[in-house]
């Protein structure tokens, strides 16, 4: 959001600088035309105001103005000047085109704003002949903001969520409210590993193709611990091909931990956690090869997937494996739903660890999320009714920008 | 007998996927090499594009900006070729520029294929490729003053004073129409924002499908007078100029591909239900 | 695998490498075409079945791309953003570069701030040294902490509050909409009553099948008309039903079960639509590959 | 030590990134940006691990003469060659590394792999869109309606198909379904974030004391 606000005027300014480089060469012939037409002198912009940019980090000031009165056909744009005192020399800060009536003096400018220091600004309208300067406005100084009030709804949501999680912690600790509805895909995980055992073939676990800075990959690493534990209990190898280098150590730890939890740390084979390539389709080609050559019998595709989802799950289907997929990437869900035996859709995927372990500590956040859903539904009903009667404060509150 | 039928239906219902692959390969590949020319119903933006060019007198000069790259070649190169087809048919003189460094080689290929190869155009007399100029919008604005100034030499390094066709070129006013083949930034959007209104240009745009929603607004407000929209638009346009070519083939492939998939879905269900009935 | 396959492979490899590395070939446009076309065919051959050619292409692709990203990572991130400045600091005393930088809050001298990621990176590499490999968890912990924190607020803003905001719509709008709404509600009630007292109790038989079919067709038409007449109401109800499907704490029975079923139907409609919409993009990709192959074929014959 | 310190590190950076979201103050913000820079660098260090992993596993197979070992050799040789050239020559636009190796090996293979989706999407449709359940029926019917609306023939059959297809895709059911998934998934992501930051979920950190 911030960077959008900041970069727009910056981009305009940069552009105008480029344009003005050319208008320098443009000046001569146009000057001739305009003199011939008898153009009157340019008027300065009106109502120039300088203020502290609201809700910023304390390093920017905003200047606003109105266009000069009257028709200004030749007007090319505005230039913004600044000085530390109204009587000192004003230096050019930036430049915008004729349709922009606001400028932010931001840290990206060559002339920066210092926090707490006083400044004066002038705005000049310019055309090919010259410029018309406004009066100086100021003093104005920049202050930092310590809380972005527009993000209050997010804070409220966090507080509600944390609060509900804490409440549910206490409830689940007492052994109450442990119920979770059946999630077929998770319930089938053990069956899948069991099938692989019967056939004496390995299990394949693909944690998506995103790096660890994606929350789905993190969630997948956590599920991997449980799946590896299952595999260790059944004594089948589990192959984990990886698309991102940083996931290698993570996955190694997860698989080793799973084997440890199952009480068989010796069966852990580090050679089965395999980095293939950061390239999406080289990875896909490699996983195809593993599925066909190592004859994996249970496939888990859990994590952030993209176009490779369908290639993997269709190839996997043709090898006859049981396939369980889970992702929150909406555009790939249809392909998993179509080609896999079970698909964990969106939130079901994140709920997997709590579902498998039934650990009261992990159930707390799950129950908290359910509580939030009730809140959302109430908000939707109330908000839509308010909208219906033309009351818009709720939507206004949620605008965030 | 019933068993035979049953097993046949079962086999069909569980058809080896390689047969499906083969059908797709044929459906998509066949029209590429042996054009079929499924009937097209041109949409309004494409019709407008065609009619604006068609309304120009024979032998007019047009300005063509090739702002695309190999990434959008599949959609835009066929459009480029088709535009040249219509222009050459009307003996138009074509001045080509590019604001993308990847544009001039594409333009060159299209010129060689159509203008030189089919209509015997002469370089420098009937068409010229001025090459790429760095500067994006600034170049657009400068061309409003002087194209000769913005492009002092052509793609091959020849000074434009030695190119006969360029004698008559001054700025946008030398051309009744500007055609922009636009894959992104800088492209049609910037031409509209910086030059269309200012220099009163009739602007036509050839765009990939992803840009269509964005450019539609300009088309609605008539800032773009006509628009080719992706492969489908290209195919419709080729139908209009009566010269079905690359886009038409690709579109045929796409149509056949869709039809084959729909057919497979229907067949799959037929076999499934028949199989169920015979077994019941 | 038979030894003659190795010979085939060695020949492929030799041909490709010679084509790539011999300067004489670089003038030919066809070199590019040949390499591209051969590799394309090798990969497509997998669609028929696994074979040495695909294996070759696959392993080549893995090697080339893994090296590409690693080289790129070193050349564009590690060296310019981390190693080079740290080494410069080290050898030139670093005083000059530190003084020039802005120090927010002055908590850490800038030179130190720059060394920290390098330290984390080296800690990560301790994995390669067995006994102290566990140290690498510190680097993982850093990335996970950062990722969890940023994702937390990012999802809250864009997918949570953002989507709720988009769904707050005036449910019944347009002139005279209330009257129409009431009319629709009456029809809906009639349909439900008809189901409860008429359809649900029907026995088997030809007449029953016909009545049932008519009823369901009428219902589908009604729902479609309703959805187009009151799009906003449909959106709000649809989203609520979808959310009920994702509700984990209650068993999906009774009214809850019904709404969650509508929810999952909504999801299926969405999936079907996305599937159908994607077909065109995928076929276009294939056309792109085929036309490149076509150019190659044109050259060859 | 093995477990407490990582948990503390996760907690510190997680909480900081959440809090800094609410504070526009430039000092806080700059630290947020700096941490982001750090993650990029630390992630880049991991490439060493990745390549070490590929080489170790491949060379072991070559050494033990396991099945397909010559192909593992192909991977190793291409990897080492490519890396050597890239490190010596650089990765600029006009290098052998990019012009030859990247553009002529990497790009066509990637594009081909990608294009195989056209085949898989067809085989998946053939197999899966059997109307066995309501779910499958809805999937199959909407997919077909949208497909028909996207091709000229569909328009020829009934001029309303493109509009219907667009409605399903952009205004109607698709948007509704996606929104429900998005909101649910956001809740899931938030709970996962919470579990990570507060160390409720720690199994992934491995064992130890």
Count of runs of 4 or more consecutive helical residues of chain A: 12
Looking at how many chains there are and whether they match, the oligomeric state comes to heterotetramer
Major sheet summary line of chain C = none
Largest interface: C-D, 119 and 126 residues
> Which outline of chain C best applies?
extended
Task: Please state how the strands of the largest beta sheet of chain A are arranged side by side.
Answer: 11-10-9-12-13-14
Strand content of chain A: 15-25%
Word description of this protein:
The complex is a heterotetramer of chains A (401), B (280), C (301) and D (209). Helix content of chain A is 46%, strand content 20%. Chain A is of the alpha/beta class and 401 residues long. Chain A has two domains: 140 residues, Immunoglobulin-like (Sandwich), CATH 2.60.40.10; 177 residues, 3-Layer(aba) Sandwich (Rossmann fold). Chain A has a six-stranded parallel beta sheet, with helices on both faces. The longest helix of chain A has 36 residues. Chain A is elongated, with a radius of gyration of 31 Å. The N and C termini of chain A lie close together (7 Å). Chain B is α/β, with parallel strands linked by helices and 280 residues long. Chain B folds into two domains: 60 residues; 200 residues, Rossmann fold. Helices cover 55% and strands 12% of the residues of chain B. Chain B contains eleven helices and six strands. Chain B has a six-stranded parallel beta sheet, with helices on both faces. In chain B, helix 2 packs antiparallel against helix 11, helix 6 runs parallel beside helix 8 and helix 10 crosses helix 11. The radius of gyration of chain B is 24 Å and the shape is elongated. Chain B starts with a helix and ends with a helix. The relative contact order of chain B is 0.18. The model of chain B has no long low-confidence stretch (mean pLDDT 88). Chain C has three domains: 89 residues, no CATH class; 57 residues, no CATH class; 114 residues, no CATH class. In chain C, helix 2 crosses helix 10, helix 3 runs antiparallel to helix 5 and helix 7 packs antiparallel against helix 8. Chain C is extended, with a radius of gyration of 32 Å. Helices cover 80% and strands 0% of the residues of chain C. About 6% of the residues of chain C have low confidence. With 301 residues, chain C is an all-alpha fold. Chain C is built from ten helices and no strands. Helices cover 81% and strands 0% of the residues of chain D. Chain D is mostly helical. Chain D contains nine helices and no strands. Chain D folds into two domains: 113 residues, no CATH class; 77 residues, no CATH class.
